[in-house]
């Protein structure tokens, strides 16, 4: 290149990429090596701390720590192997800490058991205390969980600063494309840098990002902008169109992500059968029945009953504050649509003025002037939802499920959102999968519906407990996204 001529950042980026192809992946490699170091250190430290605790018991006779080196050595080696096979080192994107903690605990226990079995085969005379192993597992699991949490925070903060980020091309400027773009912009820790948008329409920009070409321009744009990953946000396009876009991306060897349509979301519930030799897709009825329904109802009764008893002093205190804060009733009862689209009266603490709906029903908005002073605080921490424990106890609602809507809105949504009424195949919930993923308040109803359908079709007791725990954590951490 001649001196005196300036180059654009994109051209400089392409030159660096061509000269040092490993440069872009180096930060991610360092993150992975650091995480491996955290895991190995946690195992050895866990055994050492457990040894110190056991040694303090005068009734336990135990040799020096170095005699037990095979235990942390084998355990850490097997743990690394199991973490690699379970893709526990592919932490490029933020993950749910509750999910990771469960996997860490189970894989650590498996690694400990396998290490004991191997040592027993290789060293039949090797002696160890069972209490030592159990305590070491408990301490090491805690250290692994805490260490991985700290590592994740450091990695995400670094990615938010542009360290090791991926250059992303977004295909689709419609409602879904805008939703994906908004999610990327609001979550810099994802490590995505959107270089532009591909769209066949007449838009010139979306959220201040330029539309830099049409679908036919994808290969040129990928090369010109040094794209690392392509996100396709066209769920309403035909499969043939999606396959064509993917083939254009595959020519340039980039990562490809596709936002699913409604049929793909329910694909896990599809089996292939036949009708006299003619293949047919059979969609399983995913409504809860039998023992699954009994388990869910049992948990609802147990948790709601216990919650009402334990929280009764607090609920009484909140009721008193509401009466002192503004004139009107303590509770607000509103008709919502529940199981099988049957109406029920949902109970909440009143958080708005008594005349809030004098002009008719309307969505709550940010800084809604209809809220009372206390109501703003209650909505922020979901306190206004607590009386719904009564709805759960009597069977109108469940602790976890799709959030119920008012009949007037249900009638609107069923006309334009595919499979919207399938949400009513289960009881409405105080919290749900969509809510813990930030979809509450004034957010996309179509997107919420997809999350609700995924929950219904993938229900498990473990998933319900996970959603409840995430709701509590997010409430305590004051993550009231769109909670107004």
Summarize, please:
This protein has 484 residues and is an alpha/beta fold. It has three domains: 26-160, no CATH class; 166-259, Rossmann fold, CATH 3.40.50; 290-355 and 368-476, no CATH class. The chain is 50% helix and 12% strand.
Draw up the topology in text.
Blueprint: H1 9-19, H2 26-55, H3 70-85, H4 97-122, H5 130-160, E1 166-171, H6 175-186, E2 192-198, E3 205-206, E4 209-213, H7 218-224, E5 229-232, H8 239-250, E6 255-258, H9 262-265, E7 270-275, E8 278-283, H10 290-325, E9 331-337, E10 343-349, H11 373-380, H12 388-394, E11 398-400, H13 407-416, E12 429-431, H14 433-436, H15 445-457, H16 461-476
Parallel strand pairs: 1-2, 1-5, 2-4, 5-6, 11-12
Antiparallel strand pairs: 3-4, 7-8, 9-10
Helix pairs in contact: 2-3, 2-5, 3-4, 4-5, 10-12
């Amino acid at each position: 290149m001649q001196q005196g001529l300036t180059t654009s950042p994109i051209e400089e980026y392409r030159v660096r990429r061509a000269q040092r192809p490993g440069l872009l992946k180096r930060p991610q490699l360092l993150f992975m090596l650091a995480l491996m170091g955290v895991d190995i250190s946690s195992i050895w430290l866990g055994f050492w701390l457990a040894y110190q605790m056991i040694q303090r018991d005068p009734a336990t006779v135990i040799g020096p720590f170095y005699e037990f080196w095979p235990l942390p050595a084998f355990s850490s080696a097997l743990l690394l192997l199991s973490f690699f096979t379970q893709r526990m080192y592919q932490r490029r994107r933020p993950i749910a800490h509750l999910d990771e903690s469960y996997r860490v605990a189970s894989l650590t226990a498996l690694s400990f058991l396998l290490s004991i079995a191997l040592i027993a085969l290789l060293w039949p005379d090797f002696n160890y205390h069972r209490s030592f192993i159990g305590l070491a597992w408990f301490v090491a699991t805690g250290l692994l969980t805490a260490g991985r949490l700290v590592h994740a925070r450091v990695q995400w903060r670094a990615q938010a600063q542009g360290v090791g980020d991926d250059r992303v091309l977004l295909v689709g400027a419609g409602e879904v494309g805008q939703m994906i773009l908004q999610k990327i912009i609001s979550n810099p820790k994802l490590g995505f840098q959107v270089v532009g948008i591909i769209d066949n329409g007449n838009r010139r920009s979306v959220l201040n990002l330029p539309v830099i070409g049409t679908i036919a321009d994808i290969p040129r744009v990928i090369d010109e902008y040094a794209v690392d990953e392509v996100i396709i946000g066209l769920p309403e396009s035909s499969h043939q169109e999606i396959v064509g876009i993917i083939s254009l991306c595959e020519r340039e060897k980039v990562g490809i992500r596709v936002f699913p349509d409604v049929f793909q979301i329910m694909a896990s519930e599809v089996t292939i059968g036949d009708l006299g030799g003619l293949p047919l897709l059979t969609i399983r009825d995913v409504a809860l029945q039998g023992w699954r329904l009994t388990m869910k109802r049992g948990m609802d009764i147990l948790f709601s009953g216990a919650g009402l008893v334990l929280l009764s002093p607090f609920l009484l205190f909140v009721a008193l504050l509401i009466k002192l804060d503004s004139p009107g009733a303590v509770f607000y009862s509103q008709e919502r649509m529940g199981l099988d689209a049957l109406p029920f009266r949902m109970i909440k603490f009143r958080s708005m003025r008594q005349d809030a709906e004098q002009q008719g029903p309307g969505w709550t908005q940010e800084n809604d002037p209809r809220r009372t002073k206390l109501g703003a605080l209650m909505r922020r921490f979901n306190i206004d939802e607590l009386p719904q424990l009564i709805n759960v106890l009597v069977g109108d609602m469940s602790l976890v499920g799709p959030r119920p809507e008012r009949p007037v809105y249900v009638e609107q949504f069923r006309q334009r959102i595919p499979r919207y009424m399938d949400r009513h195949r289960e009881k409405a919930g105080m919290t749900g999968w969509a809510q813990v993923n930030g979809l509450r308040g004034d957010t996309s109803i179509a997107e919420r519906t997809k999350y609700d359908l995924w929950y219904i079709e993938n229900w498990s007791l473990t998933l319900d407990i996970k959603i409840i725990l995430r709701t509590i954590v997010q409430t305590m951490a004051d993550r009231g996204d769109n909670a107004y």
